[in-house]
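Bumping with the actual sequence this time:
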Amino acid sequence: MPAAARKRVAAPQRAGVRELAAAATREAILKAAIKVFAKHGFAGGRVEQISRAAPSHDRMIYYYFGSKEALFVAVIEEIYRRFNEAESRLALDLSQPVQALRDIVAFIWGYYQKHPEFITLLNSENLHRGVHLARGGRPGEYASPALSVLDGVLRSGIASGVFRPGLGARDVYLAIAALCYFYLSNRFTLSVFLGEDLEAPAALAHWQQFVTDAVLRTVSKS
C-alpha cells in the first residue's frame, strides 16, 4: 500500500483513539468528582483533590468542564441520570399495580441505601438552594422519567379499581421519596435521638414495610 494511502487509513484510527482517551479522562474526572463532592460538599471539594483522585491534572478539569461549578453541575446531572437509568430497568407488571407500586418503593429505598452519594450530594446542593442544578438548564428533565413510570402504575390501578381516582404521580412520588430520604439522610442523628440503631437490618426492613403500607393506604380506593 502506498505511504499516502497508509496515512489516510491511519488518521481516522488515531482520531478514534484520541476520542476514546478523551472520553475516558472525562469519565475518570467525573467519577472522582462524585466521590470528592459527596464527601466534602461543593464548598469543601477542591479541584486539586479531584485531579489527584482521577488521577489527572487540574488543567484537564478546566479543559473538559470549564470550572468547578460546571463540574458540580455535571456531577448532579450524572447522579440523576444513573438513578433514572436504574429505574428504567425495573420490570414492572402494570396488570398488577399494587405489586408494581411495592416494587417502586423497594427500588427507591434500595437505591438510596446502595448509593449514599446520591443523598449526600443532594444534601449539599440543597444547602446551596439548588442554584447549581437550576443553572444546568434542564429543569424538569431529571424527574420526568421517574414520574412517568409511577404515572403508568397509578393509571393502571385506577383503571382496575384498586386505586382511588384523582391521584397525581408527583404527590405519590414526593411521599415515597420523603419517607425514604429523610430516614436515611438523618439516620445517625435519629439513632441517637431515639436511642436505637436505625441502620440495623431489622430496623431498615421495618421502615421499608412501613413506607410501603403507608403509600398503599394513601392510594387505595377502599
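The C-alpha cells above came from a reply further down the thread. Residues 3-44 form the longest helix (42 residues).
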